[in-house]
Task: inverse folding
């Protein structure tokens, strides 16, 4: 594949940083966005190829326009868009506040929608594009205590499928990667929240999450990046939610 212009959201750590490294190692130019400029700058300095550091809060309604415009000014239109920025939240349904519900929708669904909407026209004009959203196995099944998160990820998978159907004849593919529990700082934070919610020790919560996965371990960030790169490489995979969960959800 020739070198492409890429944008990775939530690139400062975890899955986003792993994807950025893999794209850069393949010779692609990678623009990095997240809220933490320090983490982005450290990652950019470590990448072998061209990188842009674009600090932004993707929940800002103007962020999609600002970030995409800066990439276009520096390199040209984005050809590969990896929608990785996201967060989890844990609370019993009856104690899930309107504010927390809205936060999950804004970060996990509305922000990806705005970025997708802004990036797609140039991809269609070029006759080539790749969009990969990092969703979750929570996009495919319900779990206790994460109603807002689960609803947002179900919505993200629905957005991916609808966009893929609309764009199938244009050369633009749209897919989701659906990890289970990945060994990242986000999972550590979720474990701490679940520990507070349930009153169980954090190591007991972590062990329970490991047991949910048939492979009896957390997924690695590189294993998720493998699935993202598969979606970037293939023009025949579109509209899919690819599970990276050790066999926990077979469908």
Result:
């Amino acid at each position: 594949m020739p070198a492409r212009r890429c944008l990775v959201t939530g690139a400062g750590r975890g899955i986003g940083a792993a994807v950025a490294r893999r794209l850069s190692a393949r010779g692609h130019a990678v623009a990095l966005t997240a809220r933490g400029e320090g983490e982005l700058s450290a990652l950019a300095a470590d990448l072998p190829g061209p990188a842009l550091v674009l600090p932004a809060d993707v929940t800002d309604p103007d962020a999609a326009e600002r970030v995409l415009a800066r990439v276009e000014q520096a390199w040209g239109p984005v050809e590969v868009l990896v929608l990785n920025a996201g967060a989890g939240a844990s609370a019993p349904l009856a104690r899930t506040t309107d504010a927390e519900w809205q936060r999950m929708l804004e970060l996990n669904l509305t922000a990806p929608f705005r970025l997708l909407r802004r990036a797609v026209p140039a991809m269609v004009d070029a006759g080539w594009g790749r969009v990969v959203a990092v969703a979750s196995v929570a996009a495919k099944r319900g779990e206790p205590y994460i109603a807002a998160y689960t609803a947002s990820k179900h919505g993200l998978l629905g957005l991916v499928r609808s966009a893929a159907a609309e764009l199938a004849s244009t050369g633009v593919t749209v897919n989701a990667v659906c990890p289970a529990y990945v060994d990242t700082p986000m999972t550590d934070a979720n474990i701490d929240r679940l520990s507070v919610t349930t009153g169980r020790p954090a190591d007991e919560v972590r062990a329970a999450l490991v047991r949910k996965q048939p492979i009896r371990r957390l997924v690695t960030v590189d294993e998720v990046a493998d699935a993202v790169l598969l979606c970037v490489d293939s023009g025949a995979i579109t509209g899919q939610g690819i599970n990276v969960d050790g066999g926990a959800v077979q469908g």
